[in-house]
Amino acid sequence: YIQEAEKRWKLYLSDGMTENFENYNWFDRFETWTEPCAIVDSYILAVQLWQHTGKPEYKEMAEYIYYNAIAHTQRWNGGFGCDNCPGLVSGNALKVHADEAHWCCTMRGGEGLGSAANYACFQRARTLLIPFYHSCVFETTIGEGAVSITEESSYPSEGKISFFITSNTGGKITLKLSAPSWTKNHQLFFNNEFVPCQINNGFVTLTHDFTKGDKIEFVFDQKTAITGGLNKKNTDSSQVKLFYGPLLLGYEGKEEFRIDPNETIERLKDGTFRLKKSQTPLSTIYQLTDRKVWSDSGYQKQILFRKE
User: Fold this and answer.
1) What is the largest CA-CA distance in the chain?
2) Please, what's the b/e burial string for 164-180 (b: 16 or more CB within 10 A of its CB; e: otherwise)?
3) 156: cis peptide before it, omega within 30°?
4) Could you tell me the pTM of the whole model?
5) How far apart are CA 23 and CA 36, in angstroms?
6) C-alpha angle with apex 162: 156 to 163, nearest 5 degrees?
7) What is the pLDDT along the chain (308 residues), one digit of tens a residue?
8) How big is the CA angle at 299 (ends 296 and 303), to the nearest 5 degrees?
C-alpha cells in the first residue's frame, strides 16, 4: 500500500500541485483555482508518507505546503479561501480567487492547523522526533514515567529553536531534531555547552537523562535558492522561483519583473530580502492572516520570474 501511495503522490506532485504548493482544482486546467480542502489532504499525506517511510523529502514537502499554501490561504478573519494557479496560463503572480469558502475550506483549514499541532512531535518508544518547529508544550509518558518539554521557536524566520525540560521522570530519552536540506552551519548546545552533532536521515540526535531545568538549543542558518517550476506543462525552462529555507519569496510590484541569470538573494539584517544585483525587494508569501490578502485590495505577488 505504501508503494501505491508513493506512486500516486508522484503523480500529484508532477500534475496536481501549483507553484506555491497549493493544488490545481483539476489536473491540466491551469486557468482554475485552488482548494484548501485538497491542500490540507496533501499536507497530511506528505507527513504520513514521511512517518511510514522515513524519507526526508516527504517531511520537507510538508513544510513547503504548510508555509506557502496552507498559511497563504488562511485569511485575516481566520477562515480559508482559494487562490489562482500561477504559471503560463494565468500569469506569474499569486492572487486571491475567493476570499473565503466558509462552508468548506474553513472547516478543512482548521483540520490542517490541528494536524500541524499534532505533528509537532512523534514518539517511538523512548525517542521523541521533532519534525517541525512550533512554539508549544508537549507531554508524554516514557516507560513508567513522563516528560514535559516546552519549545520556543523563531523558525522559519530564523534558525533558532530552544527546548526546556520542565519535568522528566522517564529516565534517559533521545531527542531527534529536524535538520532540513535547506539548513547549514548547525550548532547544538546542551545547558549552554556545545555538543558535536551529525545529520542522519534529516535529524540531529541528543540522548540524555534529562532533568528539570535542562535546556537544549539548536541553531542553524538557512540557505537561499533559485529553482525551476514544479509543473512542466504550466511553466517553462526560463521561469524560476526564489526561496529562503522553505519560504517562497515574491515581488509585490504590479509590473512583471525579470531577473538576471546570475542573480543572488540577500537576507538583510532586518529580516527582509532583496535581489543583490538589482536591489529589488522581496518578501515571503508566508503571510499569517495579512489583511492585504483579500480580493478588493488588489493584492498580487509575483512568484515566477523569467531570466533576462
Assistant:
1) 63
2) bbeebebeebebbbbbb
3) yes
4) 0.97
5) 8
6) 125
7) 999 999 999 999 999 999 999 999 999 999 999 999 999 999 999 999 999 999 999 999 999 999 999 999 999 999 999 999 999 999 999 999 999 999 999 999 999 999 999 999 999 999 999 999 999 999 999 999 999 999 999 999 999 999 999 999 999 999 999 999 999 999 999 999 999 999 999 999 999 999 999 999 999 999 999 999 999 999 999 999 999 999 999 999 888 999 999 999 999 988 899 999 999 999 999 988 899 999 999 999 999 999 98
8) 155
Residue 186: CB atoms within 10 Å = 16
* Grid cell for residue 178: 529536524
Give the residue carrying C-alpha cell 509590473: 255
Residues in the chain: 308
Tell me which amino acid residue 305 is: F
The amino acid sitting at 52 is: H
Q: Which long-range contacts (CB under 8 A, 24 or more apart) does 128-137 make?
A: 128/173, 128/174, 128/175, 128/176, 129/176, 129/203, 130/175, 130/176, 130/177, 130/178, 131/47, 131/50, 131/59, 131/62, 131/178, 132/59, 132/62, 132/63, 132/66, 132/178, 133/161, 133/178, 137/166
* 78 grid coordinates: 481566520
